[in-house]
């Protein structure tokens, strides 16, 4: 009985936390997307209305009404999730370190290391290692980033021999928008086995990186942050 009481109290405490999180997400999304409430509500009404109308036509309004309610709730959740994600990417886009935050949520099977190369202009290269090989994700000025990417590839080639892909975040030609970085990475062909990925990670870790020499905050870096003089850091 004591365990059941603790479980019930834990569930009761968790539910307000989830509701509070949803409410906070909605408020943040509404700032960037003022129509999110109307759109989500409209989707729910349309889905429920269509299923209910079909129910009346076939003579089962109660069954189709219940199904319509469930599907409407699901559709609303999907639409809200997508618009919330789009709003979050919109707020992060253009901020130094935004790509690092995206890489942290790529999914299982990827080992990410933020800021493996950086220069005084805050152009940054992040690294992710998975079964597709190594993916270097760069954000900043495209012209300066090419130099950073070339230097990082040359440095890695000394210790690993695996496929290397590079992504420059942006909306220009040949660049990948921030909200499509994860999708682009997941579409890459898997050419390495698990042990090969582990070996590559171990060798890259032994090589060291910028983060092991200079602590940086996780997520987007402050725009006012100044880099030490002396040019590129690797």
Structure description:
The chain crosses the membrane at residues 36-56, 62-81. This is DUF4191 domain-containing protein. It is built from 8 helices and 4 strands, in the order H-H-H-H-E-E-E-H-E-H-H-H. Strand 3, helix 5 and strand 4 (164-169) form a beta-alpha-beta unit. Helix 1 packs across helix 3 and helix 2 (36-58) packs antiparallel against helix 3. The chain is an alpha+beta fold. The model is unreliable at 4-10 and 225-234 (pLDDT under 50). A 4-stranded mixed sheet has the order 1-2-3-4. The chain has helices at 2-32, 36-58, 61-92, 98-103, 142-157, 181-186, 194-207, 210-213, and strands at residues 111-118, 124-130, 133-139, 164-169. The chain has 2 domains: 2-92, no CATH class; 98-213, no CATH class.
What keyword list fits this structure?
234 residues; alpha+beta; 4-stranded mixed beta sheet; 4 strands; 56% helix; transmembrane
Q: What is the total number of structural domains? A: 2
Number of strands: 4
Give me the strand/helix succession: HHHHEEEHEHHH
Structural class computed from helices and strand pairing: alpha+beta
Let me know the largest β-sheet.
Answer: 4 strands, mixed
Helical coverage, percent range: 55-70%
Number of helices: 8
Strand composition percent:
5-15%
- Ranges where pLDDT stays below 50 over 5 or more residues in a row are 4-10, 225-234
Arrangement of strands in the largest sheet: 1-2-3-4
Which word captures the global form?
A: elongated
Radius of gyration from CA coordinates: 23 Å
Mean pLDDT figure: 79
The termini sit apart by 59 Å
Protein name: DUF4191 domain-containing protein
Keywords: Membrane, Transmembrane, Transmembrane helix
Organism: Streptomyces ficellus
């Amino acid at each position: 009985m004591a365990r059941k009481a603790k479980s019930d109290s834990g569930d009761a405490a968790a539910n307000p936390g989830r509701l509070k999180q949803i409410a906070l997400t909605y408020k943040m999304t509404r700032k960037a997307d003022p129509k999110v409430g109307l759109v989500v509500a409209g989707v729910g009404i349309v889905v429920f209305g269509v299923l209910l109308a079909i129910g009346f036509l076939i003579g089962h309004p109660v069954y189709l009404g219940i199904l319509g309610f469930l599907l409407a709730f699901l559709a609303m959740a999907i639409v809200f999730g997508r618009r919330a994600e789009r709003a979050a990417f919109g707020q992060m886009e253009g901020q130094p370190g935004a790509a690092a935050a995206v890489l942290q949520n790529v999914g299982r099977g990827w080992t990410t290391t933020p800021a493996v190369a950086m220069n005084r202009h805050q152009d940054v290269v992040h690294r992710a290692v998975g079964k597709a090989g190594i993916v270097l994700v760069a954000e900043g000025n495209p012209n300066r980033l090419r130099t950073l990417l070339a230097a990082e590839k040359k440095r890695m080639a000394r210790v690993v021999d695996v496929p290397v892909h590079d992504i420059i975040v942006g909306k220009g030609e040949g660049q990948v928008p921030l909200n499509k970085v994860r999708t682009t990475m997941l579409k890459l062909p898997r050419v390495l086995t698990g042990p090969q990925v582990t070996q590559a990670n171990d060798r890259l870790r032994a090589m060291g990186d910028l983060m092991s020499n200079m602590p940086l905050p996780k997520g987007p870096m402050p725009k006012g942050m100044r880099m030490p003089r002396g040019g590129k850091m690797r």
